Amino acid sequence: MWLSASVFLAYTGACFWGGVVDQRWSSLAAYWAGAVVLQWACNWWALSRRCERSSAQALAGRAAIDTLGPWTWLFGATIVALQLFPGFKCVFADVLGYYVVSDRANRALSSLLTARRGDKSTFLVQLESNPALFINQLTPDNFDAMFSEGRGITPLIDRTDPNTAPTLDALRQLTLVRDQVGQAMWYIYVGVLVTAMVDLSLAEYTCSSRTDAPSTTPPPPPPPTTYVATPHVEGQPSTSPQVPEPAPLG
Predict the structure, then answer these.
(1) CB-count exposure of residue 240 (10 Å: 0-12, 13-18, 19+)
(2) Residue 226 — very low, low, confident or very high, per pLDDT cuts 50/70/90?
(3) Predicted confidence band at 57 (pLDDT cuts at 50, 70, 90)?
(4) What is the residue extent of each domain of the chain?
(5) Cα→Cα distances 160→95, 119, 153, 171, Å
């Protein structure tokens, strides 16, 4: 399990860190397929180490069956569910995601509100005292709507400031990072659970003693038959197979 889980964590981290995973279905399908192939290879290797005398084809088939099932109906279903219901990402995005981007997001939000420092409205005071209330409402899907004319904090933003547009772009990127942290944490949580389920299923597999190829070593020849000469008696053959008598003791 530790090998499979470590490989999955490294693979998921590399995909999200490198920007390979986004909201496109093709990107998510490629990520899922890569995870399944890596897990199948790890499970096949683990079975090969435990069942050295079993057929390689049989082990590969068993690893494929035990891997493809849970990684499709559980992990694949999680990917689809998060695409159809992105609000589930806030379970992790509002906590871990905000923790990752909080410092930079708070500075960006504070920069946008610099021109209204003298405004002591209730909304602005609450926004400055707890910016997470606003930042956690931002998602890649509603970002443009939140900053459209007359909505969100748009009336508090100085559009004539040349730094406003770059700051909004930076805040948009931080919103995407926060959303991806929530998505990645769902994948990690479910992926580790699936690796444990697959490892338990593989542990119940009974190794076969059948080797990969039949043995080419010929069987040993039968022991020779010993004939002992006996005195000729009329009506009987002169010799007959006899079991050698044991040598006298002493």
Answers:
(1) exposed
(2) low
(3) confident
(4) 2-86+182-203, 90-178
(5) 34, 18, 15, 18
